[in-house]
Amino acid sequence: MRRRCHSQKKQLANSKQHSAKETEMNRETKIKWGPCCFCGKQIEDGEHDPCRVTVETSNSKWQVWFCHAHCFKLLIKDDLGLEPAHF
Ligand SMILES: [Zn+2]
To answer: Measured between alpha carbons, how far is 27 from 57 in angstroms, rounded to an integer?
Structure first.
């Protein structure tokens, strides 16, 4: 009976230690996206955000920016059937 009690305490201590470590890892790996290349504001994680806009030139040079799905949708011509398929 005593032994079980001791063992439970130990498990509890281990789980506390584990969750503290996880919190530390989450802080370290937290990625900030943005700013949005269209509006200049920070991008929070969302259903479609952050979006990446990739432009490749005719001589195969490319660059990537981050943007809000909403900002991209506002700027692209949708009357020509060019609207985004997924958002
Ligand atoms: Zn934006």
So the answer is: 37
How far away, in angstroms, is 68 Cα from ligand 1 center? 4
Ligand 1 center–CA 36 separation, angstroms: 5
Question: How far does residue 60's CA lie from ligand 1's centre (Å)?
Answer: 26
Q: Using one digit for the tens of pLDDT, what is the confidence trace for 19-77?
A: 555 555 556 666 677 799 999 999 999 999 999 999 999 999 999 999 999 999 999 99
- If you write DSSP's letter for every residue of 38-87 in order, what string do you get? TT---B---SSPSEEEEEE-TTS-EEEEEE-HHHHHHHS-TTTT-S-S--
The CA-to-CA distance between both ends of the chain, in Å, stands at 59
β partners of residue 84: none
State in Å: Cα 23 to ligand 1 middle: 29
